[in-house]
Amino acid sequence: MSAAQWRRAMNGGLRHAAGSSGQPPVRVQASAVASGAAAVDPYADSDAPRWLKFLWRTLSARHVLTFGLALVFPFVATPFFTFQVAAQALVLGLIALSLTFLGGYGGIVSLAQMSVAGMAGYALAILGASSTPISLDWPWWLAVIFAVLIATVCATVIGWLSVRTEGIYTIMITLAFGVAFYYLALQNYTLFNGFQGFQKVYPPHVLGVNWRDPLPFYFLSLFWAMAGYFAVKWIVRTPFGVALQGVRDNPRRMAALGFNVVAHRVAAYAVAGFMAAIGGVLMVWYNGLITPGSVNTGWQINILVIAVLGGMRHPIGAFLGAIIFVLLQTFAIDLIDRERFNLVIGVVFLAIVLFSPDGLLGLWAKLRRRFGSDPSVTSPSHRQ
Amino acid sequence: MKWGTRAWAWLLIGGPITLFSLWAIVDNPRLYFITLLNGLTLASLYFIVASGFTLVFGLMRNVNLAHGSLYLLGGYVGFFVAEKTGWWVLALAAGFLAAALAGLLLQTLILRHMQGQDLRQTMVTIGLSIVVADLLLWAFTAQVHQMDAPEWLQGPIRNIPLIKAYSAYRLSLLAAGIIIGVFLWWLLARTTVGAMIRAGVDDRQMLAASGVNVNLVFAVTFMLGAGLAGLGGVIGAVELSMVPGEDTRLLLASLIVVIVGGMGSVVGAALGAVILGLAETYGLAYAPTYSVVFTFVILILVLAFRPRGILGKPA
Predict the structure, then answer these.
(1) Whether A161 and B303 lie within 8 Å, measured CB to CB
(2) pTM of the predicted model, to two decimals?
(3) Chain A residues in contact with B130 (beta carbon < 8 A)
(4) Which chain A residues are closer than 8 Å to B123 by Cβ?
(5) Are A262 and A106 in contact, with CB atoms under 8 Å apart?
(6) Do B300 and A189 count as a contact with CB atoms less than 8 A apart?
(7) pLDDT higher at A263 or A8
(8) What is the interface size between A and B, counted as CB pairs within 8 Å?
(9) How many CB atoms lie within 10 A of CB A223?
């Protein structure tokens, strides 16, 4: 069996069993059957460029289908749906994806991801242009680069401080960091402009396109969301990503094998921080403003809700969760009183956590295992 | 830690604090001592709430992020009991009982079934805190509920040297914190239940093997911890007033207190509460814009040098 086949088999097995080990040969067959056409890998032994090989292995029919739908969607839907629902879901999904990467592959559940996004947003508003005199009015590209850099550095520092702790301690400490940032932004008027924050932080006009219009902004978000998605898919297959998953599963063994556990975790924070920072820039452009309200505890927890809703073990889960979250947020007014959105989302979240720890995708996998026709997938049903 | 490093640490931390205190006392002694009292009374409230949090965490390794909601629940129940009956002591008891009951339900109906799944328990409590916060907002609206102190504690105590007058209620709060601290110490150090709890903190399985009903111990501890949050809610309803959002504030305070003091340790919670209370009030009095930064710097310093908190032990 070639190395490429092994890798695909392992990944297929992972997707089905979601981490639990047992009977790998059955899994190999299952994944070979499940992936169908992909089983014949024309690039297995050729010297085609690596990105082409990577794309071939990662892409499947549902990716193409989803991508096609995402491309056609804005031309069918109303501008309201394109901007308020789809673009917002993509931006929130990107921020939640950074948490999925940290939590699902690094085993670190950080509640500070929204704060990192908020730091990027604040940095963009302070360095770039807004209606507040505090802003330095740098050109937009310089401001964006620095905003992302600053937020990534902050995320790394947060990571460096909280990697000393594990599991539940991490949640507590990152929550404390996030709330501290919220209060700092709320109370400080010299730099963060206090309660008002920054208004009129708009995306620029570039190449004759006003990126604030629904259609361009949708495609901008789609581009970065897809970039984030494939970046995660790629990173988790690099030696770094594999080592990170090893650290998640058994830090002591990885340390004994000579891996620097702390360095891997801090690096994971940095990568996730970079993604969240890009999401933060888009978030500010989407809202057109940033206030302490965008980084309060509610939003910190909302990001966790989004990631858990879709399923934290799957990168696509972040976007699925974001779509459901945004739809609930937009249409809670029709289901129940508008003010009761938190109740709806809280109950949904609670139900997911109580009955399907792996989110909606986990629920889907469970249903498929139960009613699926593929016997090799059904037989070794692990209870998790 | 060697003696030399310890001396350096004391010098580095104590030096600036002593210098600041000397300057502040010479500059304006009244402000300094009033801030000190304010800090200690706030610390007392923080201690009452955070001790419940740390108790639950120490025994069950269970981060109850709905602790703030229990605080708010206790506060609201206390407020309405006080309004209906006019008896403040009854309000205190009602707040304690309501939160304790909610805690008992939470423990027996949900958390008991996921023992050992730390992350899932934490997420469930997060979900619950969202739901409870919204239900409370629904029931009691977003308006500010301010409870009156009992008559015999209203008004200031006069003729205190240096600071002249100080609120009697706030002073009594300091006493309440000390009484609860002593009670907890007595409970944990001198009673059979306390011995069981301490044994459970060290080794759950051995405790169960020696014939103790661990589930009962868990339920009692959770009730006590939740009840303390409710009690803090009633006390805080007078000092801070009840608004939606207070739950997150007190949850954050509890988190910082137990992170700084060391998780699972009641003495650590007292220490952390004093540090946080003093840092917050001195920050507000002397550098209002940056007051939260002090808290943050303390948190970072503690994490950098004592990752498990000042009095924390390895899990």
Answers:
(1) yes
(2) 0.76
(3) 301, 305, 342, 345-346, 349
(4) 304, 308, 349, 353
(5) no
(6) no
(7) A263
(8) 101
(9) 11
**Spatial CB neighbours of A80, under 8 Å, sequence gap ≥ 6:** none
Interior CA angle at A127 toward A125 and A131, to 5°? 50
pLDDT of A150 reads 92
| Position A62, amino acid | R
- Higher-pLDDT residue of A369 and B222 is B222
pLDDT digits (tens, 9 = 90+) for B144-181: 777 777 766 676 776 666 666 777 777 888 888 899 88
Q: How far is B60 from chain A (nearest CA, A)?
A: 12
Any idea what DSSP says for residue B198?
H
Residue A153 pLDDT exceeds 90: yes
Provide the ipTM: 0.74
Q: By the 8 A CB rule, do B29 and B160 touch?
A: no
Sequence-ordered alpha helix ranges (H) in B28-117: 29-60, 67-85, 88-105
Give CA torsion, residues B204, B207, B213, B219, to 10 deg.
-40
Q: Where are the extended beta strands (E) located within chain B?
A: 156-160, 164-167
CA A25 to chain centre: 32
Minimum mean pLDDT among A49-63, A92-106, A171-185, A272-286: which range? A49-63
Minimal CA separation from A254 to chain B, in Å: 20
**Beta-carbon separation of A349 and B130 below 8 A:** yes
Interface of B with A in 103-132 (CB under 8 A): 110, 118-120, 122-124, 126-128, 130-131
Beta-strand pair A209-210/B156-160: unpaired
Contact call for B118 and A167, based on CB within 8 A: yes
The alpha-carbon gap from B163 to the nearest alpha carbon of chain A, in Å, equals 28
At A275, the amino acid letter reads M
B120 to A353: CB separation less than 8 angstroms, yes or no: yes
Q: Which amino acid is at B248?
A: T
| Cβ <8 Å between B255 and A176 | yes
Predicted confidence at residue A30, as pLDDT, reads: 40
Question: What are the pLDDT digits (tens) for B36-65?
Answer: 888 888 899 899 888 888 888 877 777 788
